[in-house]
Amino acid sequence: MGETVAALSRGAGLSAWRQIADALEAEIAAGSLAPGAQLPTEAALAARFGVNRHTVRRALGSLGEQGLVRASQGRGTFVEAAPLAYPIGRRTRFSEIVTGAGREPWGDLIAHGEVAANAEGAAMLGVPEGSPLLELLTVHRADGAPLSTARTWLPLPRFSGFADAYATSGSITRALAACGVPDYTRLSTRIRARLADPAEAARLDLTPGRVVIVVSSVNVDGAGLPVQANRTLFAADRVELVVGV
User: Fold this and answer.
1) pLDDT given at position 1
2) pLDDT, mean over the chain
3) What confidence tens digit (pLDDT) does each residue in 192-220 have?
4) Domains in the chain, ordered, with CATH?
5) CB-side exposure of 30: number of CA atoms within 13 Å?
6) Which candidate, 33, 37, 59, 109, has a CA 20 to 30 Å from the CA of 188?
7) How far is 49 from 24, CA to CA, in rounded Å?
């Protein structure tokens, strides 16, 4: 980018990493680094500011803690987009919400398998405790940026083909349709907040210890039968939940 150590003020009482963080934050605020833009590599930033990569890494970590940038493993560091308004009502559809905001939705199937319903899952899905359930671990993205990660449970054998349908379509709605549920509505929603654990932070490209919004929900089919229970973790800086009345 052509800039050198002259961009930093030595002996000014402000550490080099803090000056770098402030300079990049100012560029983000001014729009020079637009939402979704990829930042230069650590090596390029180190050359620009005349420092080592450890100093740059600390500056980027500070910006990540503020929710201004997102480090994606193997891809680089990106400016966070503006929070996406995410309505929660009787017909909450991730793909429709993301598409309506002008972004490209997709869901990644991370893992799936059969589990026995515990007391909470049995109550949510209206099945006997110990009943077989399909459990999925997923990550949901908008323009490639992870907005949420979820654990989803569906009763078996009714939804034995759901995992394959989801892996192919990347959409809960299309996977349910493939299993004979053309429409569904929200029965219940509970919302709380907590800190992300290391595995959750990694799936969401978050700095460890950042806040996530936990949304627990149950969806029912046209006959009112529970078809899906979810525990979804949203990156708190990337969405604004809008609860319908």
Assistant:
1) 41
2) 90
3) 999 999 999 999 988 878 899 999 999 99
4) 5-79 (1.10.10.10), 84-243 (3.40.1410.10)
5) 7
6) 109
7) 11
